[in-house]
C-alpha cells in the first residue's frame, strides 16, 4: 500500500535531541536505531542493543542509493503483509510471530513521547508513525499476521529532516518525538519507520500498546511483569593468572522490584560478587542489584552460566547469561592474507566497484583501509551503494570495495592494516584499470583483462586482450605467453576459433 502524505494535515509537535553519555546503552558495531520508549517488540525480544537496532529493510517506496531522496519525503509503503514487524528481514522473522506473548506497553491518547536510541545516526529523510484502526481485529489475518489494511492510511506523526539539515555534532544517541496519539481503546499496534536519505534502507519498529485511559509510556504503574534487558547475553574473556571479575548488566530492565542472581553451571570456578572486593557466592539478591560481577577463579578456562530473575508483585521472569573463559593466546601480531594483491580490470563508462578480500587474515581485532595512491579517482566503499572515502576502519572490515571513477584508466594503490593488542601489519593492493579494447568491436567488458603477473592454472579461462577474447589451452605460468604472440598453436587461442579446444 503506497501512501501519499499531505503534511499540511499531519499534526506534529516539536522533537528534542538528547546526546546521552556513552554508558547508558551498549552500542554494537552494526547498530543503527531502535524505539525504546515505548518499548518496541525488537527491544522486548533482543534488549536495548544490537540486533534490536538492526530491524532494517528496503525503504518503501524505493529511492536511489545516493540521491537526496527528496521526492519521497511524504511517501511511505508498508513492508509485505506478515513481515511488517521484521521489516521483511528474514533473520528477524521472530518479530512477526503473533502468537508470541508480546507485552503491551501502556498508552493513552493525546501528547506522548517516542524515544529512539541510536548506535549510529544517519542522514535522515523522515521519521513516521502509524497506528492500527480501532476495528483492526476484524480485518483478515488477525491473530496470524499483521497486514497494512489493519493500519490507518495516514500517519499520526511525521517528521521530515530537510536535505539541508546536517547531522548534529556530536552525532545524537537519542532522539525524542512528541506526538499527538489518536483516540483508541484496548489493544493496538503502533508502527514507526526511520527512512535514511543516503542508502536504500529504512529501520522499522513495531510497538504493542494497550490504551487504558491513564497510563503513559514508561510508567510502571500498570499490572506489568518485569521485562529483562541484558546488555550482553554472552561474555567472552581471556584466561587470567589471578581471579578476576567481569560485569553483568541488566540495568535496562523495566518494572522489577527485586533481582536474584544465581550460578547455575560451573559452581566450583564461577561465583557472584555484588561489587569488586565483596565476598563471592553462588547466589546474591537485592532490589537494585542490576549490575553484579561474574567472578572467575584464577587460571580457569571453560563456561559458567548465570541466571538473573527479575520480579515484582505481578510475577517474575528469568534470563541466562553465559561467561566463557578462553585459554590465553600467545602474543601474536596479525597475519594478513589477501586474496589478490593485484586486481586488473577494464575501463568502465560508469563509476564501478571491485571487491578486495582480506577475510583470511588471522588474529586481527581491527582493520584500516586507505587509498595511498590515486586519491582523485580511487576511493573506498564499505559495500555497494555506501558513501565513498579515502579511509575506512572497523573490527570486521575485511572485504571493502575499491571504487573507481567513470572512464578512468591508471593505477590506484590501497593499503590494509590489520592490528591487535600486540601490534599491526600492513599490505598493499594494486588496482590497475586498463583502457577498454575496442579494435574489432567485440564486447570484452564482462571478461577480465589479461594480467602478465597472474598464472592461469585452469584451462579455458577467458581473458580480454587487444580487442579479442582468448582462452588458455593448458596451464600457463605468469608471463609465460601473451595472447596472440605464439601463433595458431600457442597456449592462448581466440574464443570460437576452429583451433580452440575449449568448448
UniProtKB/TrEMBL annotation:
Gene3D superfamilies: Carbohydrate-binding module superfamily 5/12, chitin-binding protein cbp21. CDD domains: ChiC_BD (cd12215), LPMO_AA10 (cd21177). Residues 32-209 form the Chitin-binding type-4 domain. Keywords: Plasmid, Signal. Residues 1-31 form the signal peptide. InterPro entries: Cellulose/chitin-bd_N, GlcNAc_Chitin_IntDeg, Ig_E-set. It holds the Pfam family LPMO_10. PANTHER family: CHITIN-BINDING TYPE-4 DOMAIN-CONTAINING PROTEIN (PTHR34823:SF1), GLCNAC-BINDING PROTEIN A (PTHR34823). This is Chitin-binding type-4 domain-containing protein.
Amino acid at each position: 500500500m503506497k501512501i501519499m502524505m499531505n503534511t499540511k494535515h499531519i499534526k506534529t509537535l516539536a522533537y528534542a535531541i538528547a546526546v546521552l553519555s556513552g554508558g547508558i546503552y551498549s552500542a554494537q558495531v552494526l547498530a543503527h536505531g531502535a524505539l525504546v520508549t515505548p518499548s518496541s517488540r525488537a527491544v522486548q525480544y533482543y534488549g536495548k542493543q544490537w540486533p534490536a537496532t538492526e530491524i532494517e529493510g528496503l525503504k518503501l517506496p524505493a529511492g536511489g542509493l545516493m540521491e537526496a531522496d527528496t521526492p519521497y519525503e511524504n511517501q511511505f509503503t508498508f513492508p509485505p503483509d506478515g513481515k511488517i514487524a521484521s521489516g521483511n528481514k528474514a533473520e528477524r522473522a521472530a518479530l512477526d510471530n503473533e502468537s508470541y506473548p508480546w507485552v503491551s506497553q501502556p498508552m493513552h491518547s493525546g501528547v506522548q513521547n517516542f524515544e529512539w536510541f541510536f548506535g549510529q545516526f544517519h542522514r535522515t529523510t523522515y521519521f513516521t508513525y502509524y497506528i492500527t484502526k480501532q476495528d483492526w481485529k476484524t480485518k483478515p489475518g488477525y491473530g496470524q499476521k499483521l497486514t497494512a489494511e489493519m493500519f490507518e492510511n495516514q500517519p499520526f506523526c511525521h517528521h521530515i529532516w530537510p536535505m539541508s539539515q546536517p547531522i548534529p555534532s556530536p552525532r545524537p544517541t537519542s532522539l525524542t518525538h512528541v506526538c499527538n496519539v489518536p483516540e483508541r481503546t484496548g489493544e493496538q499496534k503502533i508502527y514507526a519507520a526511520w527512512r535514511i536519505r543516503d542508502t536504500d534502507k529504512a529501520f522499522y519498529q513495531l510497538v504493542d500498546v494497550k490504551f487504558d485511559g491513564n497510563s503513559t509510556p514508561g510508567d510502571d504503574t500498570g499490572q506489568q511483569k518485569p521485562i529483562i534487558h541484558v546488555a550482553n547475553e554472552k561474555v567472552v574473556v581471556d584466561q587470567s593468572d589471578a581471579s578476576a571479575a567481569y560485569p553483568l548488566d541488566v540495568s535496562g530492565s523495566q518494572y522489577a522490584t527485586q533481582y536474584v542472581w544465581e550460578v547455575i553451571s560451573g559452581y566450583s570456578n564461577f561465583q557472584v560478587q555484588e561489587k569488586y572486593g565483596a565476598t563471592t557466592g553462588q547466589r546474591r539478591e537485592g532490589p537494585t542489584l542490576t549490575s553484579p560481577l561474574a567472578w572467575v577463579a584464577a587460571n580457569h578456562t571453560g563456561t559458567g552460566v548465570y541466571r538473573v530473575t527479575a520480579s515484582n508483585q505481578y510475577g517474575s521472569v528469568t534470563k541466562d547469561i553465559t561467561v566463557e573463559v578462553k585459554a590465553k593466546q600467545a602474543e601474536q601480531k596479525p597475519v594478513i592474507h589477501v586474496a589478490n594483491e593485484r586486481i586488473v580490470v577494464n575501463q568502465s563508462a560508469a563509476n564501478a566497484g571491485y571487491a578486495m578480500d582480506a577475510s583470511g587474515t588471522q588474529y586481527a581485532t581491527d582493520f584500516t583501509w586507505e587509498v595511498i595512491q590515486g586519491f582523485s579517482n580511487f576511493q573506498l566503499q564499505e559495500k555497494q551503494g555506501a558513501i565513498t572515502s579515502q579511509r575506512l576502519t572497523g573490527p570486521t572490515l575485511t572485504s571493502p570495495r575499491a571504487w573507481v571513477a567513470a572512464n578512468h584508466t591508471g593505477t590506484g594503490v590501497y593499503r590494509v592494516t590489520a592490528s591487535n593488542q600486540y601490534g599491526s601489519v600492513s599490505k598493499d593492493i594494486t588496482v590497475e584499470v586498463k583502457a577498454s579494447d575496442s579494435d574489432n568491436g567485440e564486447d570484452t567488458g564482462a571478461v577480465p583483462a589479461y594480467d602478465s603477473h597472474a598464472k592461469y592454472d585452469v584451462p579455458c579461462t577467458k581473458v580480454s586482450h587487444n580487442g579479442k577474447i582468448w582462452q588458455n589451452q593448458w596451464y600457463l605460468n605468469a608471463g609465460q605467453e601473451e595472447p596472440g604472440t605464439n601463433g595458431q598453436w600457442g597456449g592462448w587461442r581466440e574464443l570460437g576459433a576452429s583451433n580452440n579446444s575449449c568448448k
